[in-house]
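Following up on my earlier message about zinc ion. Here are the inputs again, as you asked, copied directly from the submission form:
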Amino acid sequence: MADKPFRLLPRLSDRNRHFWQGGEHGELRFLRCEPCRSFIHPPQPVCPDCLGKQLAPAAVSGRATVLTFTLNHQPWVPSPDHPYCIAIVEIEEQRGLRLMTNIVHCPAERVSIGMPVQVVFEKHEDVWIPLFEPREDPA
Ligand SMILES: [Zn+2]
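Thanks, got it. Here's what our run produced:
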């Protein structure tokens, strides 16, 4: 579709499908360790906190904070929106639960560290890519 930027799509597997297809249900999902309740990303077979193997996908709120970001001015791929913002966000539910993503629906020069954001999904084929847009905090 012409209105969406080009994206490199992930290869789906049983281990990551919950993450890339949660957007179909409007949910950002991570593996969660049943015994210790830690969210785990990227997906792996064993919980790094307690070495537990009882992991199941669970949805988070989709609320996050911009930890760090960079503006990409280089048109590596054909895309209408340059510059765009590549960011690492920290998910609200758990310190250290981080995602590399793009900040969208916001001029790149307005993005700042500590900015509250929320997930939005961009569908490509059978993948829902989690991106983040600015979030208005209720005062
Ligand atoms: Zn655990």
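One observation from looking it over: The mean pLDDT is 91. Hope that helps, and feel free to reply on this thread.
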